[in-house]
């Protein structure tokens, strides 16, 4: 028997690995000290645990422990990098370059930079979702201080050419930040190979706990790279004050270590599931569109548009499949995804797209169930066409659709 609903929304968050939870538990009730307490064993134990985790997280991305600043997640890490560097340049003209398909956790801080007097260029993407590096090169100006481009997109899974972007950034002496929240455990992430100065991470996207992440800072802070956003005690090299989330950090460290060890096996496993899903959908459903490059994408994501169906009805119909229609943040309003639209997909088709985010917990049987259910539902919805967005009469007349709508 399949356990339902089936979870394929792993780009929104992943299940915490039980081994991670086990590693965390003693740090709530036994070793509950404050890592900043320097006068007793409780504090020392907590500080040791944080040191170990810092080494584990650093090792995952090929960094030194002194280059890791723990944060509450990738959102805060992005804010620290983007706002932290622009604060350093607040007295002079400054310009940043980003991409329209970035996560809100990059776009919103960039808007903040603009509100505070800086300038930002938002690059378009090519139809496959990738940045045109030459176009990025041309967008650099004398006052450009930062380029921020995500390693892997959270909605369509494409892998941006960060190492190529780094060459351009280096040639112009511009700092490079990447939001790698969706890349860790899904594609090799190594700070020297990527050539980045700042890199954001989030534990809960890689089988760790929510509420913890980190910013990698090349060379550590040394008082030069960034201005802090949070003041109050000078923790984390003065860059992020506040009592450390010791249990969360221990969990993040454990997840990083597991990721380093099990990454290659997971890639093979998830790729097999992804191929099974994509081939299954192609065999059973006509007129589907893959959003984002097939070659330059992580195996953990398939974002598919279904021509001629109402996206909302489709998601409601897939009631025992936990997928999403875009990012967790934009799916509530059911406006078409800004990422899928940026590929040149028109509104109705963009709205009829589903993001399948796979993990090492998914199984062949789950994939087969999903393929069948999606195929049935798409066929059913297409049979209702021709159908206009503003015409609800089909829904009322159709017993299956009426039942979903009644269930909401
Ligand atoms: C999830 C995600 C974030 C936000 O990370 P939190 O740790 O939840 O703050 C930022 N960027 C990307 C690409 C993400 O997928």
Number of helices: 15
| CATH homology-level superfamily of the largest domain | Type I PLP-dependent aspartate aminotransferase-like (Major domain)
Order of helices and strands: EHHHEHEHEHEHEHEEHEEHEHHEHHH
* Helix content, binned percent: 40-55%
Q: Which CATH top level class of the largest domain fits?
A: Alpha Beta
CATH T-level fold name of the largest domain: Aspartate Aminotransferase, domain 2
Structural class: alpha/beta
Q: How would you characterize the largest beta sheet?
A: 7 strands, mixed
Strand order of the largest sheet: 2-8-7-6-5-3-4
Strand residue percentage: 5-15%
Distance between the termini: 26 Å
Number of strands: 12
> Architecture of the largest domain in CATH?
3-Layer(aba) Sandwich
* Bound compounds: pyridoxal-5'-phosphate
Task: Note the overall shape.
Answer: globular
Mean pLDDT: 92
What distinguishing features does this structure have?
408 residues, alpha/beta, Aspartate Aminotransferase, domain 1, Aspartate Aminotransferase, domain 2, 2 domains, seven-stranded mixed sheet, three-stranded antiparallel sheet, disordered C terminus, binds pyridoxal-5'-phosphate
């Amino acid at each position: 028997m399949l356990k339902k609903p089936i979870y394929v929304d792993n780009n929104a968050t992943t299940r915490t690995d039980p081994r991670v939870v086990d590693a965390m538990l003693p740090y709530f009730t036994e070793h509950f000290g404050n890592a900043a307490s320097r006068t007793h064993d409780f504090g020392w134990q907590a500080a040791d645990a944080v040191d170990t985790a810092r080494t584990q997280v650093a090792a995952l991305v090929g960094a030194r422990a002194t280059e890791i600043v723990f944060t509450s997640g990738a959102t805060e890490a992005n804010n620290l990098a983007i706002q932290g560097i622009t604060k350093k340049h607040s007295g002079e003209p400054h310009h940043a370059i980003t991409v329209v398909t970035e996560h809100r956790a990059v776009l919103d801080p960039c808007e903040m930079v603009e509100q505070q007097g800086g300038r930002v260029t938002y690059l378009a993407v090519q139809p496959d979702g990738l940045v045109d590096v030459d176009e990025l090169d041309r967008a650099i100006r004398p006052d450009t201080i930062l380029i921020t481009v995500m390693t892997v997109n959270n909605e369509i899974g494409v892998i941006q050419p960060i190492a190529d972007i780094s060459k351009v950034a280096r040639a112009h002496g511009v700092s490079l930040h990447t939001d790698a929240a969706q890349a860790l455990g899904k594609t090799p992430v190594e700070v020297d190979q990527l050539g980045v100065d700042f890199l954001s991470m989030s534990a809960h996207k890689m089988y760790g706990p929510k509420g913890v992440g980190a910013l990698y800072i090349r060379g550590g802070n040394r008082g030069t790279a960034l201005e802090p956003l949070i003041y109050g005690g000078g923790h984390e090299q003065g860059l992020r004050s506040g009592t450390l989330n010791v249990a969360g950090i221990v969990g993040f460290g454990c997840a990083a270590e597991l990721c380093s060890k099990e990454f290659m096996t997971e890639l093979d496993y998830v790729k097999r599931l992804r191929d099974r899903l994509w081939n299954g959908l192609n065999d059973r459903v006509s007129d589907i569109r893959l959003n984002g490059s097939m070659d330059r994408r992580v195996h953990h994501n398939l974002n598919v548009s279904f021509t001629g169906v109402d996206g909302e009805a489709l998601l409601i119909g897939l009631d025992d499949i936990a997928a999403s229609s875009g990012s967790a943040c934009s799916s509530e309003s059911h406006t078409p995804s800004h990422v899928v639209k940026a590929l040149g997909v028109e509104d109705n088709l963009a709205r009829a797209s589903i993001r399948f985010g796979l993990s090492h917990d998914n199984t062949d049987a789950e994939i087969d169930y999903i393929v069948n259910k999606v195929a049935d539902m798409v066929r059913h919805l297409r049979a209702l066409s021709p159908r206009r967005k503003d015409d609800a009469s089909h829904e009322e007349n159709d017993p299956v659709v009426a039942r979903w709508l009644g269930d909401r």
